[in-house]
Amino acid sequence: MTPEELLQRVTVDPAVCSGKPCIRGTRIYIAIILDALAEELTLEEIIDHYPSLKLEDIRAAVAFAAEITKMLKRYIQAALQHAKYEILTDDGSFYGEIPTCNGVYANAPTLEECREQLEEVLEEWILFRVYKNLALPAINGIELAIKKVA
Fold it and tell me: Pairing between strand 94-97 and 105-108?
């Protein structure tokens, strides 16, 4: 199966599992499958625990996680392109912010440290907003939003 075909096995529907990504036709969260893999359960052990799962469903969970990771990376890179930096006159430290991401800013002794801190703050800001189901601004045409899939 192609990655696109695998992703068709995943659904996000507010009426099912509180909108958490799960395997289509089941109430098995993608996170449960990924946690099981992280705990080093074998594919056979996972399927034994969840008999309605097929091998392709486990592969779909991994493909979904990979796709989410790629989407987040593209979004973060696009947001960082909008970063503005300045040297603060009072102490010579660097201040950086991403104006389109309200509250994302950093301050550090060097420009490189400021960039690194800004990226960390941005990552945490994104995760917090996703966790709280708060909208994220579209950046360079990239939108991160959970939408209902039939």
Answer: antiparallel
The stretches of 2-54 forming alpha helices (DSSP H) are 3-7, 30-38, 43-49
For residue 33, CA distances in Å to 109, 125, 146, 148, 150 come to: 42, 26, 20, 21, 22
Please give the model's pTM, rounded to 2 decimal places.
0.74
Two tokens at 141? 């045409």
Provide the pLDDT for residue 17. 83
Measured in residues, the chain has a length of 150
Q: How far apart are CA 125 and CA 128, in angstroms?
A: 5
Q: How much is the pLDDT for 149?
A: 45
- Residue pair 21/28 in contact (Cβ under 8 Å)? The answer is no
State which residues of the chain have pLDDT below 50.
Answer: 148-150
CATH topology of domain 3-131: Double Stranded RNA Binding Domain (3.30.160)
Enumerate long-range contacts of 110-116, CB under 8 Å, 24 or more apart.
111/85, 114/85, 115/80, 115/83, 115/85
